[in-house]
Recover the amino acids of this structure.
């Protein structure tokens, strides 16, 4: 699970890096992102909501996967992370989720333009 969460977070951040023109490229991710696909082998709906929180000091991602099980009872996974800018294109982040995990997210490798 930790690997999946880390991959998702790194992928989102790397997508924004190529378009970044400001110090806080997380601003480019703000809003609601939705997708349909497969998670853990089940059809799923995924939602990410990126917002600025806590007086503008952090960027928060709220991540939800609703997996549609064959018996009709949906299963849900939720997670949230808080990102703090510590310099140009540098962030620290901590992840929390409904599975009880809490851990730092790795700093993504970024190309300087």
């Amino acid at each position: 699970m930790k690997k999946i969460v880390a991959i998702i977070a790194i992928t989102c951040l790397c997508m924004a890096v190529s378009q970044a023109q400001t110090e806080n490229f997380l601003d480019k991710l703000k809003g609601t992102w939705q997708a349909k696909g497969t998670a853990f082998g089940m059809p799923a709906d995924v939602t990410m909501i990126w917002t600025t929180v806590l007086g503008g000091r952090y960027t928060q991602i709220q991540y939800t996967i609703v997996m549609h099980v064959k018996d009709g009872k949906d299963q849900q996974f939720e997670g949230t992370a808080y990102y703090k800018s510590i310099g140009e294109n540098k962030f620290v982040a901590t992840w929390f989720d409904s599975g009880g995990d809490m851990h730092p997210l790795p700093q993504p490798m970024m190309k300087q333009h």
Remarks:
- The longest strand covers residues 75-87.
- The chain has one helix and six strands.
